[in-house]
Design goal:
Length: about 425
């Protein structure tokens, strides 16, 4: 508290100085805030000092447990102060109050025990068995005579109850109420009755009764052929439910759809890769034929003829030349060259082929000489790109082979290490 007083005095002095010296006006508000919090600290210290002089603490109400708090003790003669941790036991009821709460707890239990049942003479649903009464002031411990019918928590075993038949069964209940240091035992009886059985439960009881009457030393039992005078037939439960099959079918359909989509995606990527790798050779052949004096249309037709001969001799089909063959067929069927070039561009759908088509279209205007120079430049450029692409594909293939190589390395290490380990341990 002394520090708070000193800070408050210093802040007040600075605020007064700020009035005299205008250039100090910036620190006026911070000093005012510091003064306010220093005053709050002084008031807090005074309140703590007043609490210390009373020497009294408030206990926790009964049932809330002991109170743990911090307190400071000051020795006047020594002039020293110590911080202590105190554990204060909870408040206790007076004996008369405890007896009053016990009586009220018994009455509350009598009123609430039946729960959703009509009376204690016909308990067919779980009764209201509580662990405490009177808002937690009184604890209760239950004990039932028929544990096979009802648990200590008050849950009825409906299957066991229904085996008793249509009558009721008496159950003794003992309740021990505890409030502080006082205790009271209360006993009463109630009657457990089976609830209304449905058709399935009646069948289960009838079949179990017939099974129980058979010889237990036999390894097999005979299921009844008649129930309540009516002929019945039995069958084993299905090993697989129709819903499970349908669920598996849905998963399989999703897997097939995903596999088809991935396959289609891979085919598109493979086609684009083939078109990209075939582009340098395609441009080089076209430039070579144009350099030999052929026109654009004649050169394209010659390339298609050379590709057809190659395929008939067992050569591999290539996407670029297949697109070229379709373009030539469309031109033979009467389509104009410009439209055929545009269809070829859309069929290939790659940037290099779009550039090639634009060169062919412009070549019809500027002539073969200018077109030949542009194609030679394009061929040199795309050959460099193809070498870079081949290098990149090789790196990807090496990366894919890394995992199998690591698996093989692990197998080899296991073959070498395991026998050595077994030999060291004498196995």
């Amino acid at each position: 508290m002394g520090l708070c007083i000193a800070v408050c005095l210093a802040a007040v002095i600075l605020i007064y100085v700020c009035k005299i010296k205008g250039e100090w006006y910036v620190i006026r508000r911070p000093c005012l805030v510091l003064c306010i919090f220093g005053a709050l600290g002084i008031f807090s210290g005074i309140a703590d000092a007043q609490d210390k002089t009373y020497g009294q603490l408030e206990r926790n109400p009964p049932g809330e447990g002991e109170l743990e708090t911090e307190a400071y003790v000051y020795f006047v003669e020594e002039g020293t102060e110590y911080g202590l941790t105190l554990s204060i036991p909870e408040q206790k009821y007076k004996p008369s109050k405890e007896q009053e709460l016990l009586a009220a707890a018994v009455e509350e239990m009598q009123q609430t025990f039946c729960g959703n049942n009509t009376s204690v003479y016909e308990i067919s649903q779980n009764p209201d068995v509580r662990e405490s009464y009177q808002d937690g002031a009184v604890s209760a411990e239950w004990l039932f005579s028929e544990r096979a019918l009802i648990s200590a928590e008050g849950e009825l075993d409906q299957k066991a109850v229904k085996k008793l038949g249509d009558g009721t069964h008496k159950v003794e209940a003992a309740v021990t109420f505890v409030c502080g240091e006082s205790m009271q035992e209360y006993t009463f009886a109630f009657w457990v009755a089976p609830g209304k059985r449905n058709r399935k439960e009646e069948l289960e009881i009838a079949v179990e009764a017939q099974i129980a009457g058979q010889d237990r030393t036999s390894s097999r039992i005979t299921l009844p052929g008649y129930i309540d005078g009516e002929e019945v037939r039995w069958r084993a439960p299905p090993s697989v439910q129709p819903e499970e099959v349908l669920g598996l079918g849905a998963l399989a359909a999703a897997a097939v759809w995903y596999a088809a989509r991935e396959k289609q995606k891979q085919e598109k990527e493979k086609r684009k890769r083939g078109l990209f790798l075939a582009y340098p050779e395609f441009v080089s052949k076209l430039a070579l034929l144009l350099g030999a004096g052929m026109g654009i249309s004649s050169a394209l037709r010659k390339m298609d003829q050379m590709y057809a001969i190659k395929v008939t001799q067992g050569g591999k089909k290539e996407e670029a030349y297949e697109a070229l063959h379709r373009m030539v067929c469309e031109m033979d069927n009467g389509m104009g060259e410009l439209r055929a070039y545009q269809a070829f561009c859309e069929d290939c759908d790659l940037q290099p082929y779009r550039k090639l088509v634009s060169l062919l279209i412009s070549g019809q205007k500027v002539g073969n000489r200018k077109l030949l120079e542009q194609l030679n430049e394009e061929a040199g450029r795309v050959f460099t790109e193809r070498k870079n692409a081949a290098r990149r594909l090789g790196e990807e293939a090496g990366t894919k082979l890394l995992i199998p190589m690591m698996i093989m390395l692990a197998i080899v290490m296991a073959i070498v290490i395991i026998p050595a380990f077994l030999a060291v341990n004498g196995i």
